[in-house]
Design brief:
- By secondary structure, this protein is mainly alpha-helical.
- The protein has six helices and four strands.
- The chain has a two-stranded antiparallel sheet with strand order 1-2. Strands 3-4 form a two-stranded antiparallel sheet.
């Protein structure tokens, strides 16, 4: 079965660089931020960064095994500089954190039997055929790399 891969665009780039974002603030919020940064002898960016990190510790997410973790811990557990490894850890461990595009790519991998090791079904039937099982232990990383890595990182 050929999987229908979404247009990934810049879905996954090497994740080791700092990113710059633009934030719109109300005039009063901007003034308060500027004054707080001056009081603490920090830049406004450093103050925003620290506030975001503190907030991420309060956000709770559920993992696929029914475990609960802070957003900071979940992201740290899934962190990999390799884009494909990062994606696989994320969708297997904390699927609730995946973007729509990442979910679409994961569905394509799930539907592609080339990406899964064949396993014998459990049971007394001696003539039973092998089938593929989509448990994460049965993921064939070599096949995933062959069929999807080039599409993910744009090689």
């Amino acid at each position: 079965m050929t999987a229908n891969i979404p247009n990934l665009g810049s879905l996954i780039e090497p994740n080791h660089k700092k990113r710059c974002i633009t934030v719109r603030l109300a005039p009063q919020t901007h003034d308060a931020l500027r004054r707080a940064a001056a009081l603490e002898h920090r830049t406004m960016a450093a103050l925003v960064h620290r506030a975001l990190e503190a907030h991420f510790d309060t956000v709770q997410v559920w993992g696929s095994a029914g475990t609960r973790a802070s957003l900071t811990k979940a992201v740290a557990m899934c962190w990999e500089p390799n884009p494909l490894s990062h994606l696989l850890k994320l969708v297997i461990s904390f699927p609730c954190l995946a973007t729509n595009t990442e979910r679409a790519l994961w569905r394509a991998i799930m539907d592609d039997e080339r990406c899964w090791r064949r396993v014998r079904p459990k049971g007394p039937e001696p003539g039973a055929k092998a089938s593929w099982d989509t448990g994460s232990d049965n993921l064939n990383l070599t096949a995933v790399c062959e069929h999807y890595y080039a599409r993910i990182v744009g090689l």
